[in-house]
Every structure is written in structure tokens, then in C-alpha cells.
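Encode chain A's predicted structure.
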Amino acid sequence: MSGLAVHVEGVGLWSPALAGFDALRTRLAGAAVPPPAATPPAQALPATERRRASASVRIAVEAAAQAVAMSGRDAAALACVFASAFGDLATTDELCATLARAPAELSPTRFHLSVHNAPAGYWTIAGGCRASSSAVCAGAASAGAGLLEAAVLACAEARPVLLVCSDIAGRGPLGEIVGCRHDFGAALVLAPTPGARTLARLQLALADPSCTAPSPAIDCTGDMPDNPSAAILPLLTLLAAGRAGVIAMAAAGGLALHVRVEPPA
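Encoded structure for chain A:
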């Protein structure tokens, strides 16, 4: 694959250490960043939905809302791709424990949150979005697979696309198996052509995993090395620093995605 290019119009970010893209910029500038609230605000959700939403949904929705707000796009018209390696680990662990202890007590509300596309459902319903939406899972390569899916969709349909990558810390036996101990969510609004709000141009190319890409000069992945969605953090770091560079992301078990970040034309 060659010549696949998209343009970043908006960026969203939430983790226990960073409440948004501006916080990442501040941190890269060497200034202290106050910790965010214990849970993401997720103001894009109606109050009733926000109260029952899980951490997985709130993180994904918060990152998505930040990116869309920065882009100036209409959320209702944006096609979207939600990528997650594990989905809602906390809810899945809770359901498994309930099934083992008292199956009749299983909550339908909790069950619907365990579905892999629950964040996409909450987002599209809250925003009245009738554009296409998809939920992508590729294990440790989920973030790269999601970026590739969103970029191909943006170019093939000549329309802006919202990408959201998020995973939460695991609990119980599932948490021990997957080893994910941190929450993280990020989002990008990608457009096929440059515009007034373009932050950077991304040139994507597929490569064999043995073909390495130079590491970016600045890297924040040490904050959460065990979260699969944080694989997109080096890309966000280059965007926040306003630097050009190339990063490599796994896009499948035997496929790498090289992403070249370039300043807007």
C-alpha cells in the first residue's frame, strides 16, 4: 500500500494522568499537569445515560467528544471507528463472577455494557449519528488496525472519519490474564483532504513487522506500557509537539503500519 494519506483535524485524549490533548502539550513543554478528575466527564452523554455508563464507555466518549470539538465537525455526520483490544474488562469480570455465583442475578444493564461495540452505540445514539460505525478488535494490534480502518474509510468514501481507541484496566482473573493496569482513551478526526483546521498530514504504508521505523524523539508510552490502545500515544506525542516523524504500529499479527507525520500543506 502506498499513497494513503489523511489529515488530522482533531485530537482527543483521556487517561488518569492526562485530561486532554492540551494537557499532553503542556507536559511536553515541561510544565506540571494537574491530574484529571477520577472519572472522565463525558458531557456528550445525556445525564441519565452518563449515570449508568461504564468507565469504558465514558473514556471512549470523552476522547471522541474532545476530538470532534477540536475539528469543528458535526458529530451526527461523522462515520466512526471504535477500536479496543479487550472491551469492557471490568464489566466482563463482573458478569463472569455473577454467572458463577448467582446466574439469576445477572443484570441486563450490565450485560449490554459488555458488548464490544457498546461505546460506539452510546456515542452514536447520544449524538444522533446515522453515519456508519464499526468496532474493531485485533488484540495488541487493535489501535493500528483501527487507524488503518479509519484511514481507508476516509479515503474510500471521501469523508471525515472519527477514530477512537480505548481500553481500561482489567479486574479479577481477566485482569491477571491480560495484564492491562491502566485506563487510556484517544481519538482522532481524520479527513481525506486538508482544511482550515488541519493539524498534520499522515502518510500510511503497510510493512513487514521486521521493517523497523525510527523511534520518535519524544515518547510518553512509559506512562502506560501495558495498555494496547496506548500504542497510538507516540503518534499523539508527535502531533502535540508539532514535529514530523515516523512511527510503527502493529496492524495485525504479521503486519506493521508505518505512519509518517508531516506538517500541514
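The chain is about 35% helix and 20% strand.
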